[in-house]
Write a structure and sequence with these properties.
Radius of gyration: 40 Å
Strand content: 35-45%
Oligomer: single chain
Distance between the termini: 113 Å
Number of strands: 67
Largest sheet: 7 strands, antiparallel
Helix content: under 10%
Length: 846
């Protein structure tokens, strides 16, 4: 029922953009854009991005495009083809400069008003710039050479209400032209409003002018007197929105506005130069801005600044910075490019290899794991090389696991024939020696190595083998843990994880449960944590893939499960809490758990990486924001680099992740209703059919008859930095007081709504936020009852009942009167008979 979602095209570049950690998303005609040449871009206060083209207006909500095509035959429709500029006033109305004059657009009722048809004094010519002031005035720059080219319009405060009620007339507006001063040649060009509300422009000779907002007089002026920011040898003038402006050099050419260039400023302070005719965006820096380049008399800085990003197509002059800090650039025929910072700072190595139990070696080398036993990868050369132990080891062995101890010794578990060996390379002699230990072997199953805080080396093998090596005294001890699992097959017991908690206890993950090893310095004691030992299941599955002791709570243990998600085990109370897909986890197979320095837990899963906040129990999944890391990771493929970054091995290589050291400023998301369908038909907001009413505060109020009570509401949070990670929920009061989670689905389907008055509430949040701070968007719904259940019907029923009652009462009273009259007549007849009988008797009797 709802419109098809746009699938963004991700264009990955190996140029400056990738080096800067940037990614680009293309929005083209294939995604629903009305035309490929983008002439202007604007984000309104609700978060929608409006895209003006050479064939109509487009609204983008982060997921899909809604088009407003030119149509001269329908009322309240757009009539101009070219959209040259877009801005917003204090009431939320959009002002458009088109090839047929200025247009005011109410985005709630979706009504366009071509002011040249309403106000005769307004030009019906192309409008290049429109600016709105805080006092309500609108400044318009139009292309009519016979005039000054700029006029100011004072609209009424209730303009939105007049548009929605269709009562707009020319008497509601005041129009005044700008007066040209001495030697200022008409018409004025390139109108701009600066951050301090100063109005500047260029005359027909491109000389800089300043417009006095009070007197409306344009005079030549010195641009150095304007409020500016010094940037090396250049001056920056910021526009009214604060994140873009113009740059000029303070020399004799500064008065010529043709020597000025447009810039945009990213949230982290970078100044980006946009130049039509070249696909390369430049990044200004103060060092380069002090250079002098001979031979360039005009705009020399284009030749001296480094590249910020290189687009795949030539840009147009349309560009903006949205609320989330993303850079939007229009192209000359190929739609829009949205340039954003990558959500995850990572690098990928060995993309054609599947990485398991890797190990970082000295001198910038990485051992890819037991799948590539005799090879190492050199980070400096980017090449696979022969492993150093191939020449050193005289034994014909097959490395399975490698550990670098704190004192510089190397420990290796290697396969020779059908027997596992424990080998040690002394850091003083660089010679390998076999350490006396006996280990059993299962094909293709890893062996866990750990150095504890006391310097002991632990080897957790397969079939229940556990080996403790004490290098200082040269002793080795071996235990068989399979006796702890009498109800299982010991031959299939696998060791999948090995770690040490703050109390010095060891925790071993296996495919048959969790094993706790206490008193590891003397004779270890084994405690089993699984559904057989505890009586009630602690976890959703006994197949443990990863274990991490909590750094703050000594009794807590985080456990990654194969198919059971993430579990938090309280070892003191012997209780656990599960976190699965229904709680926001991307996948229920959790291979690895690594904490970062900010307190987050990073989880490698069967479907990419997930970041978990253990304090508010929220997840952030990177499957949409970083498609390149949306892969299947491997068992045992997680650890830290020598510099402290996070490393994860997957089926498509090794990923080195550097967690963000600056937290993004979080702001509550506002949900906006994007479409409403009734009985499968989308509502036309421009029609005055009584179904749609918009409150003065722009809240939507629907009035529907009883037989049109199937409602579909589409919504979005357009100001979200990463729309595909946003979670939604809704509820309908008073039908339900409980919220209905919608996940990443952006629609609510309400079927068979009974007659009554309702409030539909919508909320949205980022995946790593909680609902307590979410804002609520409301829309009102009234479903009228059928005519026989309406108030008029009940009033008619009451009136009819009164009439019937009165008629019945009258009939009863009439019957009583008739009976009384009959009784009276009967008495009169009796009297008459007696009277005549008496008279007759008297005549007969003397």
């Amino acid at each position: 029922m709802l419109k098809k979602t746009v699938i963004p095209i991700l264009l990955l570049h190996c140029l400056a953009g990738q080096a800067q950690g940037l990614r680009v998303q293309a929005i083209t005609v294939a995604d629903g854009l009305s035309q490929g040449f983008v002439s202007c871009l604007f984000q309104d206060s609700r978060g929608f991005v409006w895209i003006g083209t050479f064939n109509g207006l487009n609204r983008y909500d982060g997921y899909q495009i809604k088009r407003f095509d030119p149509n001269n035959s329908l009322p309240w429709s757009l009539k101009g083809n070219y959209i040259n500029c877009i801005t917003e006033d204090r009431h939320g109305l959009l002002w458009l400069g088109t090839d047929k004059g200025p247009v005011v657009f109410d985005p709630h009722s979706e009504r366009f008003v071509h002011l040249a048809e309403t106000i005769p004094t307004l030009p019906n010519a192309a409008v290049n710039q429109i600016f709105t002031c805080s006092d309500g005035r609108v400044w318009i720059n139009h292309q009519q050479p016979a005039t000054s080219g700029v006029l100011v319009l004072q609209p009424p405060d209730n303009l939105a209400d007049l548009i929605r009620k269709g009562r707009l007339n020319s008497r509601a507006f005041q129009v005044q032209p700008v007066i040209l001063g001495v030697n200022v040649k008409r018409p004025l060009l390139t109108l701009r409003m600066l951050q301090d509300s100063s109005l500047i422009a260029g005359d027909a000779d491109y000389r800089h002018c300043r417009i006095d907002a009070g007197t409306r007089i344009a005079e030549h002026s010195n641009p150095h007197t304007l409020l500016h920011r010094q940037f090396g040898n250049y001056r920056l003038l910021y526009m009214v929105n604060g994140n873009q402006g113009v740059v000029f050099r303070p020399d004799s050419t500064a008065d010529n506005i043709q020597n000025w260039s447009e810039f945009l400023q990213t949230p982290d302070g970078e100044i980006v130069l946009l130049r039509a005719g070249t696909a390369r965006l430049l990044r200004m820096d103060t060092l380069a801005s002090h250079r002098e380049i001979p031979g360039y008399s005009r705009m020399p800085f284009y030749q001296q600044y480094p590249a910020f990003f290189e687009l795949d197509q030539l840009p147009s002059y349309a560009a903006t910075i949205d609320l989330a800090g993303n850079l939007w650039v229009g192209t000359a025929g190929f739609g829009v490019r949205k340039i954003s910072r990558r959500k995850l700072d990572y690098k990928r190595f060995l993309p054609k290899l599947s990485i398991y139990n890797f190990c970082f070696l000295p001198h910038g080398q990485i051992w890819p794991g037991n799948q590539y036993p005799h090879q190492v990868f050199d980070l400096h050369t980017g090449q696979m090389e022969q492993a150093p132990w191939v020449a050193d080891l005289t034994l014909d062995c097959f490395p399975y696991s490698i550990l670098l101890a704190q004192n510089g010794d190397w420990w290796m578990v290697a396969l020779k024939g059908s027997r596992l060996l424990v080998l040690k390379k002394d850091h003083r002699t660089d010679k390998w020696e076999e350490w006396p230990a006996s280990l059993l072997w299962l094909r293709d199953v890893q062996v866990q190595l750990l150095e504890d805080t006391r310097g002991n080396i632990w080897v957790s093998g397969n079939k229940g083998n556990l080996v403790r090596i004490r290098p200082k005294v040269g002793l080795t001890d071996t235990w068989d843990m399979s006796v702890c699992f009498p109800e299982s097959q010991a031959d299939q017991l696998r060791s999948t994880a090995l770690t040490e908690d703050r109390q010095g206890n060891l925790w071993i993950g296996s495919n048959q449960g969790l094993i706790q090893v206490t008193t590891p310095d003397t004779k270890p004691k084994f405690h089993i944590w699984n559904k057989h030992k505890s009586g009630t299941p602690l976890f959703k599955t006994d197949w443990i893939l990863s274990v991490y002791p909590d750094s703050e709570m000594p009794d807590w243990l985080w456990v990654g499960l194969r198919g059971g998600g993430l579990a938090r085990l309280n070892t003191r109370t012997r209780t656990s809490m599960d976190f699965t897909i229904k709680d926001g986890l991307v996948n229920n197979v959790v291979y690895g758990i690594l904490p970062d320095s900010f307190g987050f837990l990073w989880l490698s899963t069967n479907q990419g990486l997930s970041r978990f906040d253990p304090h508010n129990h929220t997840f952030y999944n990177y499957i949409y924001s970083e498609p390149g890391i949306n892969i299947e990771f491997n068992t045992g493929g997680y650890g830290y680099t020598p510099s402290g970054d996070l490393a994860f091995g997957g089926i498509e290589g090794l990923f080195i992740v550097r967690p963000n050291h600056t937290q993004q400023q979080k702001r509550p998301l506002n949900v906006q209703v994007t479409d409403v369908a009734v009985n499968g038909q989308y509502l036309d907001f421009t029609r005055n059919d009584g179904k749609v009413r918009i409150h003065p505060d722009n809240l939507l109020d629907l009035q529907l008859p009883y037989d049109q009570n199937n409602l579909a509401v589409a919504f979005a949070a357009p100001a979200a930095g990463d729309p595909f990670s946003v979670q939604y929920r809704y509820r309908v009061q008073p039908l339900s007081k409980y919220w209905i989670p919608a996940g990443d689905q952006r629609s609510a389907n309400l079927v068979g709504i009974p007659p009554g008055q309702y409030t539909i509430e919508l909320q949205a949040k980022n995946s790593d936020d909680d609902w307590s701070s979410a804002r609520t968007t409301r829309m009102y719904l009234t479903v009228s009852p059928p005519w026989y259940r309406s108030l008029w019907a009940y009033a008619g029923y009451a009136l009819l009942a009164v009439l019937v009652f009165r008629l019945y009462s009258r009939m009863v009273r009439k019957r009583i009167t008739l009976e009384q009259e009959m009784a009276q007549l009967k008495n009169l007849d009796t009297f008459k008979n007696r009277f005549f009988a008496y008279v007759s008797h008297e005549f007969k009797t003397p």
